[in-house]
Amino acid sequence: MAPDGSDWRDRSTPSTPPGRGQPVLSRGPFRGRFYPRGRSGPPGPRGHGHPSVPRIPGKNILEGLYPSTIQVIEKPAEVPAGDDIVIGDVQYITSYSWAEGDEPTILVPGSPRLWKNDLPFPFRAPRDSGIVFVYQNGHRCPSYPLLPLFVAADTMESDGHSPTTWSSVDIVTDRNNLRKLWSFVENPEPSDFRIDLELVGPWTVLMQRWEERTAEEVEMRGFGGYGDSFEQTCTTTAPGCERGIFAGHHRVISYDMSGLKLVVRCEVDACFAPEEASAEVGDQSQNNASSPDDDLTNALKSLSISSSSNTPASATTLQKQGLTVVKAGSIIPQSSLIKVKSRSEQSMTSLRWYEIYPQLLLGQTFHSMIGVHRSGEFSKVRHVELDSPELEDVARSAQSGLRKLRWLLEEIQHAAMERGQDAKLSLVCRQGMLVLMKRTSSASLLPVDVLKRFEV
């Protein structure tokens, strides 16, 4: 868990590390998680007979910014109480999975990995290690990290999916940005962060995620948990998405936040296969006796490559805006999405839901599957739903942060509107102070032809 309360895997992180003495490859079960030798990035993970991994150079948070501050955005002490802030009218826009390819490649609509209904408890998972993606969109599409969102949306629309009225949107953002802003308004000592901004219509603001590093080594963070190893063990690749990269599925939704219309992109860990989605899934433990392979085989039979009308999608490969687009995967119901986490037996007794809840709420992820382990030996999974009685107090307490977040988003929107579409802005939080600064480059966050959709 990062100091700001965020899951640093918001994110893309590695799966089970390679065995002792194995080279780190771009193929096999670790696709997309480790840097391949002979391409970009450093050699394999530290330890297990590998050379030591050099520190990946990071960017300065003020890089590409003019030194002067345009505006200080004060942290709200308290937003006046009123009606609860409600996230409603949740609509699926598009989804995609990053895939193996010589060029940046996405599968559209792609699919999250599928949850294995019954797991062979107890089982042991190795500790996570090696090089991981912190921000996969920024790593694979560095010039325009937001571009895959729009390419995937255009691909879905061309196949008959309902179009989005982009000019009606207030804010387009990654969930990660919302979580950082939530942490700023609620945390007395928030971590430093930066978000690049651009007004692209009369009122639509693009919020582009910024990271010091788009890839990181687990060991640099001073810990190595079991989350990725557990996630890979308890999930499997969806049909048609065999080329997909582990932890590479992204979903784009729109919703109304009490009058503010947001388009939000977030990574999705897993989902229930269609016939499982409506089934009641309780805690899974070592008392389960049925075979996970049998249950999963039955579930896979109902999952097909589909378009928005659930008819088979053609295996078409397209080139759009420098991205290779492969039509593959399935549109998964929002109610089937899963956040996968792991916790030790000791930490489960003091699980900090106030840190986890914003991630689930802002991504509208209904299910949490939490693997419980002792030194990497997993004994059970706790299944918690977003609207469960267990989280009622958490949801009630979260209203304070949600109210402040909505207020802050409106302040950011107004600040961008005051300065117009020619201003290329950045929000920078340093030492607990949030300021608005101007970028030295006049480049937009998206290609010109993509920006046209925001015109009124």
From TrEMBL:
Basic and acidic residues bias: start-end ranges: 1-12
Biased composition (Low complexity): 27-40
Region (Disordered) residue spans: 1-58, 277-298
PANTHER family for the chain: PROTEIN CBG02620, START DOMAIN-CONTAINING PROTEIN
This protein's name: Geranylgeranyl pyrophosphate synthetase
Taxonomic lineage of the native organism: Eukaryota, Fungi, Dikarya, Basidiomycota, Agaricomycotina
